[in-house]
Amino acid sequence: MVKIPRVMRHAFSLSSPRRAPASYPGRYTEPRSLRVIVVDDERDSVDMLTVLLNDEGHEVRGLTKGKEVLDVVADFNPDAVLLDIAMPDSSGYEVAKEIRRRYGEVKPMLIAISGRYKQASDKMLGQIVGFDHYLTKPYDPGLLLSLLRF
Hints:
Residues 1-12 and 14-28 have low confidence and may be disordered. This protein has one domain (35-147): 3-Layer(aba) Sandwich (Rossmann fold). Helix 3 runs parallel beside helix 4. It has helices spanning 43-55, 69-76, 92-103, 120-129, 141-147, and strands at residues 11-13, 35-39, 59-63, 80-84, 109-114, 133-136. By secondary structure, it is of the alpha/beta class. The protein is built from five helices and six strands. The longest helix is centred in the first third of the chain and has 13 residues, at 43-55.
């Protein structure tokens, strides 16, 4: 009998050719330092994730405005972008769609984080616009960190 952790019900991960696994399933992948952009209109969320990711050895840029993301992606060349969906100036869906249009499907990894948009249709839209993973708040920080071990 396999037990699935309760937190997994809050996560959505896409099987996609653009994200080939670094190793076969079940094999532990050593963490490596990544360049990560964290975007959320709530400064406390940005600060908390920035501290968590810095402690894990990642280089992080934190933003509170969706409209700033595209310029920072161009300058910072991130491995991953964590995007809040519900932002007042530009939705995470819009930003993800534009990142995929400009940079294709290989990089950066896009992770949606939403406290408001939790329905299956919201997650489906996330897949359509190019998110690789979709987390809903509250989520397990350990799960987020495991997604960054690609």
